[in-house]
Each structure stands twice: as C-alpha cells, then as structure tokens.
Write a structure and sequence with these properties.
The structure holds two protein chains of two kinds. By secondary structure, chain A is mainly β. Chain A is built from one helix and eight strands. In chain A, the strands form two sheets. A four-stranded antiparallel β-sheet of chain A has the order 1-3-6-5, with no helix packed on it. Chain B has one domain: Beta Barrel (Porin), CATH 2.40.160.40. Chain B contains three helices and 17 strands. In chain B, strands 3-4-5-7-8-9-10-13-14-15-16-17 form a twelve-stranded antiparallel β-barrel. In chain B, strand 11 and strand 12 form a beta hairpin. The longest helix of chain B is centred in the N-terminal third of the chain and has 12 residues. The two termini of chain B are 31 Å apart. The chains are: A mainly beta, B mainly beta. Chains A and B meet through helix 1, strand 1 and strand 8 of A and helix 1, helix 2 and helix 3 of B.
Amino acid sequence: MKRARCLLFGLAAMLAWGPVRPASAHAFLDRAEPAVGSTVAAAPKSVRLWFSERLEPAFSSVHVENAAGEDVDRGDLAVDPHDRTVIGVSLKPIPPGTYKVRWRAVSVDGHATEGDFVFTVGR
Amino acid sequence: MRFLLFAVAIAAASTAPVHALAHGFAGKRFFPATISIDDPFVADELSLPTVSTVKEPASGDSPATREIEASGEFSKRITPEFGISIGSEFRRRIPDEGRAESGFGNVELMPKYRILVDEAGEGVLSAGLGIELGGTGSARVEADPFTTFEPTLFGGKGFGNLPDSVALLRPFAVTGFVGLAIPNRAATSTTHVNEDGDAVIESERHPHVLRYGMTLQYSIPYLQSFVRDVGLGAPFNCMIPIVEAVLETPLDRGAAGRTTATINPGVIWSGGSVQVGVEAIVPVNDRSGVGVGVIGQLHFYLDDIFPDTLGRPIFGGGQ
C-alpha cells in the first residue's frame, strides 16, 4: 500500500507539472470540399479543408495540382475568420481530370501534420 | 482519490470527437499506442490504467488461476529520439483451489531509441532494452526474484504507398517487435519441509525466452482523410480496428519450444488527447490460457496535454 501511495503521489506531481492546455494539439483533416476521393460533376472554384484544431495560417499550406504536377490553385490561402479550423484556397478554371490536394497544417500550439488526397472532376 | 478524479476529468475533457492525435507519426501515418505489445515510437505518454483478466492453465502442482491486473506506464522523451518508460502492475491471483493473493509485480524499465523514420514510406524502426527489476514486486503474486534484460527491436510500416487499384487497402498498417529475454539467474532454488518433516530442495529453471509479436491495424481516420471519405461520423471516424498477436518461445533450460501465444482482436478509439482500447485475449493452445480473456486501456498523449512542459523532450526541443 505504501508503494501505491508513492505511485499516486508521483503521478499527481507529474500531472501538476504543467497546466492542462485545452483542445490544442495535432490538427487532423476532418473533411474537405470537394470530399476526399470524390468525383464531382462541375469544376469547383475552391478547395476548403476542415481540421480538428485551430490553425496557424503563417505556417500552414494547401496546394492543388493536376495530373501533370502543375499547380492549379491561385495561391491565396486563407483561414476562415469565423472558424480558424477551416482553411481554403481558390482554383483557376480546371478541366475534367484528377487533382491532388497537398496540405500541411500547423495548429496554434505548433504541432504539425501533413497529408494529401485526390478528387476527380467528371467529364 | 483526488488524483483519480483529476485523471477522469482530463479524460472527460479530452473526448471531443476528433481524429487521432499525437503519439506516433511516420509521414502522414498515425500509429496508435497498441495495447498488448509496445509500439515502435518514442513518445511522452501515460497508460493508466491498463486492466486485464486472463486465466492461466494448471501447471504441475499449481491449479488453474484467474489473474486480474491493473497496470500503469509512464513514458518520457529525453531527446526527440530517445526516451524511457517505467511501469508496474497490481495483480490479484485467484486459484481454483486455495487462497487468493494480491500484490505488485516487478518494476519494469524500457529505454528506447528511435533509429529511423521513413516519412514517405510510413516506416519506423526503434531499439530498446527492457529491464524487469527482480525482487521489486511481491513473491505472493509470483513476481520474479531475478532481473531480466530484454534487448528488443521494434518496427512499423503503413501501406499508404499501395497503387490506386487497391487504394482501400492503404489504411492498413503493421507493427511488430522481437526481443530476447535474458534472466540474470539460471535457476532459483527454494527449500521447504514436506509432510514427513524432511527438507526438500526444489529448483526452478529460468530459460532464455524469444518474445515476438505483431499488430495488423486498419485506420478509419486514414481512410477518410487520405483515401476516401465514406461518410462515417463519430465515434466510428476515430476508430482503428486492430488484431495483436503476442508470442513467447523458451529456448533452453528444459523448456525449449514450448511456445505460448495469444491473438487479441479489438478496437482502439483515438481522439482529443486520449485514446481508449479494448481487446479480447484468445489463447492459441492449452499452455497459453483457459478461455478468452479481456484487456482494456486508457491512454493519454502527454505531448498534447502538456505541450510546453511535460509533453516535450527534456533536451533538443521540438514537439
């Protein structure tokens, strides 16, 4: 029992070491428009990504490229001012085809994640 | 009691239905903390508690025994690549015949070094040295009186590079380990007096043991974030179905080849700064157990809960 008390004391001291920061961690992609892996009938004018955490726009990025690897976004990355978990970029006019979205998300506490997905514009 | 309330409060505050966070990354692949075997990452994390119940088969003069364990493990990064874990467990052993006993098992340490991370290939390789400190636990619950060292290799690999034709298999990943448990004592002798009043010396031999295992996991978060959004909502969007296999093969000292193993299917739910997992423990032969056991775990990602203090490496910075 003495050892159990020592263990509890140690864990309590460990948890008391620093303040618990609420809901600020690695940002994961929750959903996207166009949706991940989807086929859309009409060419979208923008790509929007919803993340699980608030983002730091200065260090986050979204690029959209066509099958030849050419950027088709306008480079005007913006975080939604009403919801900092949402980030988007507008697109140039794009023909039917498959497009890859590459993103890097840095949450407000500095944790970084990255990923990519494709969507298809139907003919 | 206050600590337990605090821990529960953290868990409750961390259960927002978001995708898996922190712990082990290789590129865009997130590997959860697995329950039955150690994962290949070096991280700031706390598993508290891990609770299991299994029934050991009868052996020699010992009757079949139900063993219930509640354990905790704390892992801390010293540098971004090197960390150390410390843990122990409280056991209650309930034999089919005779008196139940309770007590702590031995203290276990695991310094671990992350050798490489292949971000593009979603791969990771680590090496560690498990140390079970003999005599730190209670003999009543059969904690070993000798120390065991176990050099171990850990690995993990995601299948994110599979071709488009089998894109739905990309959320699969495997992890595994192989280690050699080396006791610092070849045998333990005990003396007792039998019914006739004669002193009897019994000797128990301690073999070298090859320990190995693997997990196969399918990440729903990976599926929906990188392959195809199939529209699964909470809580399924945070789930990782998993099967873990744990095997031990003694190599010498009269026990060579007597492999024991369990196959443990289950699911891990990973969200916020915490994950919860539960698995069945299915013994593969008579030596490995009697009936199906259960293991469950509550696990905290300390790098997300304490990003500026406890959740970062002591040296080398970074998150």
